[in-house]
Amino acid sequence: MRIRLSFLLISIPAASAFTTCVTSYQNTKPVLYAEKPVGIFFGTSTGSTEEAARMIASEFGADAAGPFEIDSVQGSCAEEFTKYDALVVGTPTWNTGADLERSGTGWDEIYYSEMQDLKIAGKKVAVFGLGDSVSYSDNYADATGELHDVFENLGCKMMGYTSTEGYLHDASKSIRGDQFCGLLLDAVNQEELTEERIRNWVAALRAEGILEGSGASSSISSKESASAFGTESNMANVEVDTVVISEPIPLPQQPSSAASGFVAHYNARTDRTMWIKVDGRSYFVTAGKP
Is 274 left (phi over 0), alpha (psi -120 to 50) or beta? Predict the structure, then answer.
């Protein structure tokens, strides 16, 4: 069968190949397209978790829909969650020290009722959470652990675990083994690290394969493409029969000594290794296994 596809053909100078649109996190609005591979959902009380969700959505770019507040999908979680190949979900912690329903948000209303009927085994899920690691150092972001456990108990494939180094807490119910069960943020005491931690976490999720099997066009983010190939182009809508990528995008190579203090995340499908610093503040990518 011969299929004619319509693409955006980019007419560019020799040094450029892609274009990108940069939007401030504050002005990022929900993307309401169910075709996106990743759906972002959050609960919030003061707005801090919503702001983090918007920053995460901005970092995913065209690959993510949302963010959507969990209160808006109560009663229709099954329909909303099944729209996406992967979920990124977030929560604050308010019921400090509680064994259950720690978030103080709409998540608590559906954890042990509506969500227990979901048939989402095998879905890729990554969690993030906010907390105060100084004032509540013994219960830092505890609710993130409960959010993780609810999805894990539904048979989901959990992703996005991070190092506990570089934080100010003493204890947390969000630790699994020697790692946090997702991305933890402290907008009170370490706000200056939030953007960097989010950028590195989303990059790590891409390297782990959160977009694999989704039909997403690329595992390289729009920001990486823009920095590598330029940001200006003239575009025309044309019809083509076949699209062929003749050469792979070169990956930066780092000396082996640069891996000191970094944790390797190898993606067998792309044969790439992402090295993330234990404090979550920097990363680089190499070709092949670590």
Answer: beta
162-187 per-position pLDDT tens digit: 999 999 999 999 999 999 999 999 99
pTM of the model: 0.65
Determine the pLDDT at residue 275: 66
25 class by beta-carbon count within 10 Å (0-12 exposed, 13-18 middle, 19+ buried): middle
Pick the closest to residue 188 from 128, 129, 132 (CA basis).
132
Q: pLDDT at position 283, please?
A: 61
Look up residue 133 and give its two tokens. 């690691």
* Alpha carbons 283 and 280: distance in angstroms, whole number: 8
Q: Which stretches of the chain are assigned E, i.e. beta strand? A: 5-11, 38-42, 64-69, 86-91, 124-130, 157-159, 162-163, 175-176, 179-180, 183-185, 234-240, 262-267, 272-277, 283-287
Q: How confident is the model at residue 276 (pLDDT cuts 50, 70, 90)?
A: low
Element (H, E) at 149: helix 142-153
Whether the Cβ atoms of residue 184 and residue 235 lie closer than 8 Å to each other = no
Element (H, E) at 143: helix 142-153
DSSP string covering 60-119, please? HGGGEEEEEEGGGGTT-HHHHHTT-SEEEEEE---STT-SS--S-STHHHHTTTGGGG--
C-beta of residue 96 within 8 angstroms of C-beta of residue 114: no
Write out the two tokens for 2.
């011969």
Asked if residues 289 and 273 have their Cβ atoms less than 8 Å apart, the reply is yes
Number of residues that this document lists for the chain: 290
pLDDT tens digits, residue range 71-98? 999 999 999 999 999 999 999 988 766 6
Rounded to the nearest integer, the mean pLDDT of the chain is: 75
